[in-house]
Amino acid sequence: GEPAKRVANPRTVQEAKERGNLALASGQHDEACAMYSIGISLDLKNHVLYSNRSAAHAHMRRFAKAKDNAAECVELCPDWWKGYVRLGQAVEMVDGAAAAFDVYMRGLRVSPGNPKLEGKLSDVYRKSLGGRTELEQSPLSSSALKVVVEHVQCMLALLRSVALRDWDTIAAGGPLLATLFPVTAAASAAYSQNVGVGAGEEEVVIERSDFELLQPRALFLRSVDAALECMLIYFGMESSFVFDPTAGGKRLVYRFASPTEARDRAGRT
Q1: Do 165 and 264 touch, CB atoms closer than 8 A?
Q2: β-bridge partners, 243
Q3: Which whole number is the average pLDDT over 257-263?
Q4: pTM for this entry
Q5: N or C: which end of the chain has fewer CB within 10 A?
Q6: Mean pLDDT over the full length of the chain
Q7: Which of 140, 138, 230, 240 is CA-nearest to residue 180?
Q8: What was the pLDDT predicted at 265?
Q9: H-helix or E-strand containing 90?
Q10: What confidence category does residue 234 fall into, taking pLDDT thresholds of 50, 70 and 90?
């Protein structure tokens, strides 16, 4: 029989995108890459085509190329939250969960409260912890285990409140802040002695050994930093450290600005 006629290349960006999407949906990933590449040659600034080509490369486990294309997508359109999802997925495969966590945090600054980004961030955090059974079999105390498991959700709740400029929720968020910033018994006692008051009723106290076990957990520390950054940047939190000479630890003392000052500051960010 006669040889099959070669289908002409797309002549428009939209045609290239549509043919690429059809190929991607049918599992023809190389063909999808080719179509998206033609579209990009016609419009070098089309961030969606870079995102789609990233997906095609990821399907073929070409994660470095997937990362490069997603990074270009985010560079071209830094306000598009889907680009951060695509980039985070590729970065996790190339550079690990901690690097992906940072990407999703960047995305949440662009799209606060976005459920897709929050879900991705929670996923990489949970993966970094290991399974629940593994955690329960670890030397962590029950108090520390509760902190670790609940920490990222508390951090996300804080981010949502920051995005909404919800000062009242933050100011009343004793349990939330206690989980985000646990203290050692020695540091709590040092603070009480220094300022002449007892420890807060909602304070979460964990052992020095728990802190030592938490230090290698990079994403736990990143979520602490993210929470602290929110408090400092958006709500004018003043902080000071009380050092525990026996544990070498430190207790963060958070003291809010006045509600009026905090609302004013939040309104200017």
Answers
A1: no
A2: 250
A3: 52
A4: 0.76
A5: N
A6: 79
A7: 230
A8: 53
A9: helix 81-95
A10: low
- % of residues, the chain, pLDDT over 90: 36
Task: Output Rg (C-alpha) for the chain, integer angstroms.
Answer: 24
Cα(139)–Cα(125) distance, rounded to whole angstroms?
19
Sign (positive or negative) of CA dihedral 260, 263, 268, 269: positive
Using the structure block, give the residue that is written with the tokens 């290991």: 130
Query: Pick from 56, 70, 69: which is nearest to 107 by CA?
Result: 70
Give me the DSSP letters along 2-69: PPPPPPPPPSSHHHHHHHHHHHHHTT-HHHHHHHHHHHHHH-TT-HHHHHHHHHHHHHTT-HHHHHHH
Helices (H), 96-184: 97-110, 115-129, 132-136, 142-163, 167-171, 174-180
| Chain Cα centroid distance, residue 11 | 40
Q: What is the pLDDT of residues 204-225, one digit of tens each?
A: 778 878 877 776 677 877 787 7
Pull the structure tokens for residue 185: 């018994």
